[in-house]
Each structure stands twice: as structure tokens, then as C-alpha cells.
């Protein structure tokens, strides 16, 4: 059960007393599970001229970290600026305007605007509003579900879709090579080839009076194959590595590529789906643009046969992505 939107705890204006339903328990709240600062996640440049070095560095990053900063990716800075601009403009609308695009998950409609800032009587709330919609493939995209404001939202997002699709395919090819597979297109084809789905999730974390007591997004791994994340300039992303939270220092125009669950499964655990969470800020809104690539819902995903043998038995069961997703959302064992 959720309260009405007039009880929304915050919006552009921040509240001075933190409502209890946001307050995290001991061990979970950021002040009790501090992240280590000053460690860089691996940086991978796509302009590395030596392909073997590139493949080696990338697969090492994905086996050890499950996340890397991608530079020289070929997406113009101006397009990344426009992407940030159109998202920010949407979130500047009044709550009432944003609610006109509200999603309705209980009716199976996951696309649109959603807020976790209203009281939910089940679990602790995350300090975040977001907008979720499909970007690709064109046959499945419903433009009615995209923000109408600003008017340039559609053009900019279509342009970004082309770029982020290209980057996904490049990385999938390099990751296939990194697994020692002859067929460089195997990961792409297992994920549906050109029917791979891309989903946009724009996260907006309003300023919070007591950021050390709340979480923007709880610790999780993404159920995607890959997630390509563009943050704004407010820090907040943290990743779990060797028993510690590490604060990710974001380079301005890098893409933060996460390995998601589907690549972990396909690679039979060679590449790690990274556990991550996000923090919020006292004075400033943090925003991030996450593009999840997923297989079509009826694709069956399991460890690649060529990676399974007597020494390396299969670590994961095979199932359709629809079933994986249902189990993940409902917190059932995989
Ligand atoms: O905002 C971030 O940096 C991370 C967001 C995230 O993990 C997600 O939306 O899945
Ligand atoms: Fe995530």
C-alpha cells in the first residue's frame, strides 16, 4: 500500500527531518558500512591499438571487478550532454506532470515514471525517483511511454540508442574473445542478435537531509547482460569488491559498464555480475542514466556449452529470461 502523492516526502524541496521509512538498519546504512575512497575501477580505452591487450585488460576487469570505466567509446560528449539535459528537464516538471506518465507495475506496465519517495508499508524505501522505458528493438518500442517533455527527448534518445547499441555489440564481441571462443558473435547471438532489448532507466536522487542514513538504490546486481551507466557529476555509485564497498570516482565522459547476471551465467561465472549500490547527496540532486541490455524474454540463457566440461561443470541452470526476471523480481532462488 502506498500513500498519495501529496504525502510525497520530498521533491525539489528537501525535508528537514528524515521520515523513518527511509532510515536503514545498522550495518546497512552508509555511516556503518563506509566505502573505501581513492581506488579507481579499471579504465578501458577503446582506442587501445593492440587488440590482444584490449581483450586481456577487458576480461581481467570483468573477472575481477565486473565493472569498468570505458573511455574513447566514440559517443560525442555533446550527445552525452544532451542526454543529461533532456533527462534533467523531465525531472524538473511538477510532480503532477510527471505522474501523467506514471508506470503501473501491478497492471504489468513497467514503463514510465515511478517514485519510491512515497511511503510503502513493506520495506525500507529507496531515496529515488526514476523513469523506465524500452529503447530497442524498434518493433517493441512504444513512444507513447517516453517523456513528452522536453520535445527533443525523443531525438536525443534515439540518437543515443544507436550509439549505446554499437558499444554493447563491441563489448560483447571483445568479451567473447576474452572467453577464448572462436565465434566472436556468440554472446551477441545468444542475447538475441539485433533483437537484443535496451531499456533506459533514468535515476533521480533528490537532495537528502541525512544522506548517511539512507540508500538511493539498495545493494543489487543487475539482471541485464550489460548495463551502460552515465552519471551526472554528483558522486554516489559504490561497488563491492573483495569484502569492501568501493566509492567509484566517475570520470566526466566515461561510460560505466557493469557486467549483469546474464553475462555471468553465459560465461559460467568467468565474468562477475557486480554488486553495487548508490548513495545520495545532502545538497545536490544525483542523477544517472542506466541502459540495460537484455535478451528477448523467450531467449533461453544458460552457460555456453563450449565453456562447460568435466573440470568446469555448469554453475547455473538454463532458463528463459522471462523466468529469470520473474524469479529475480520476486526474490525466488534461481
Ligand atoms: O545510480 C547509480 O549509479 C546506479 C543505479 C543502479 O544501479 C540501477 O539503476 O540499477
Ligand atoms: Fe544497478
UniProtKB/TrEMBL annotation:
One of its GO terms (molecular function) is dioxygenase activity. Residues 1-33 are annotated as: Disordered. Pfam families: 2OG-FeII_Oxy (PF03171), DIOX_N (PF14226). The keyword Oxidoreductase applies. Residues 196-295 form the Fe2OG dioxygenase domain. GO terms for biological process: flavonoid biosynthetic process; pigment biosynthetic process. Its cofactor is L-ascorbate. It comes from the Eukaryota. The keyword tRNA processing does not apply. Keywords: Dioxygenase, Flavonoid biosynthesis, Iron, Metal-binding, Oxidoreductase, Vitamin C. PANTHER family: OXOGLUTARATE/IRON-DEPENDENT DIOXYGENASE (PTHR47991). Belongs to the iron/ascorbate-dependent oxidoreductase family. This is Fe2OG dioxygenase domain-containing protein. It comes from Papaver nudicaule (Iceland poppy).
